[in-house]
Amino acid sequence: MPKGIPNKRYTPEFKKLVVETMQKEKLSYRETARRFDVSSDTRIRDWERIYLTEGPEGFAIERRGRGSKSRPPKQLPKRVEEDLLAEVQRLRAENEYLKNLQALVLEDERRQHKKRW
Fold first, then answer.
1. Helix, strand, coil: what percent of the chain each, to 5?
2. Who's near 34: CB < 8 A, 6+ residues apart?
């Protein structure tokens, strides 16, 4: 089997054409790979799987790299999320208040210090 260009990228239109031609003419994966000069028949099989499960739009999705094997992030209940956001806002306001208070105290101490001299 001829080797293709390593790391060659195929357009979504090309992938759609390959899969539809294969299905219409009832070609095997190997025959299809040879006919369209694709490096591997397993690549054709993957394209067919994507085409059948997601349709031609599935070819536009970038699939390179390692897939995530971890669990999906947990979704908090809406009420809990609202409570947490409210607490964050309250803490930010409190933090701002304390910063302003500290600035006032420091300014007052400087004035007291100047009066003594």
1. 70, 0, 30
2. 1, 2
Nearest CA among 60, 64, 85 for reference residue 7: 64
Cα of first residue to Cα of last residue in the chain, in angstroms, is 94
The model's pTM: 0.51
Q: Is 47 exposed, middle or buried (0-12, 13-18, 19+ CB in 10 A)?
A: buried
pLDDT digits (tens, 9 = 90+) for 4-39: 556 678 899 999 999 999 999 999 999 999 999 998
Give the pLDDT confidence score for residue 72 in this predicted structure. 73
Six-digit token pair at 113?
A: 């210090």
56 class by beta-carbon count within 10 Å (0-12 exposed, 13-18 middle, 19+ buried): middle
Q: Measured between alpha carbons, how far is 63 from 35 in angstroms, rounded to an integer?
A: 24
Answer with the residue of higher pLDDT: 5 or 91: 91
Q: What whole-number distance in Å separates Cα of residue 59 and Cα of residue 10?
A: 10
